[in-house]
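Schema walk-through. Below, the input block comes first and the output block second. Nothing else is stored per chain. Lengths vary across the set, and this one has 180 residues.
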Amino acid sequence: MIARRSLAAGLLCATALAACGTVTVSGTTVTVNVAQAVAYSSGIYALVNSFLAFPGVAKALGSSLPAVQTALNDIAAVGPAVQVAAGNAQTFSFNSASPPSFLASLTADLGVLRADVQAAMTVLGSGATPQVTTYYQATLAVIGAITALFAIGGTLAATAPSQSSMSVKDALALVHVKAP
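--- output ---
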């Protein structure tokens, strides 16, 4: 039952994005726009590093900080890995039943980032500045975009895209990454 829900959530998310020309799902084959993969992985890396630089944020993360940094570095490597895998092509395809190794931990890494960034915001509470809140919203927007781009199923896919009030384009612009 859970597997069916995960598959349905992933396909729903991917199908919605396919209408925008971002990802195509055909059976178990997922085709991803390389430029978006690069922009989103660069964007999340810059956003979370900017978020961590605000006073009090790293302290609010406490012992979760090393896990956030590891997840962030893993995600930052996805864009370049997609470029290498795609060669000179504008798209990259993979079988969702056996994704490439560089995508193996993506779901877990995105989950770590989302959970820990949300936990930091909870600790900061009303002490969070408007800038911290803006970068928080931007981070959630790009996590949702990455989740949709790679057609990641499960709870992360079902909840991440709708958790931010910010567009991906605006989120990426905060860190000077051009949205493709």
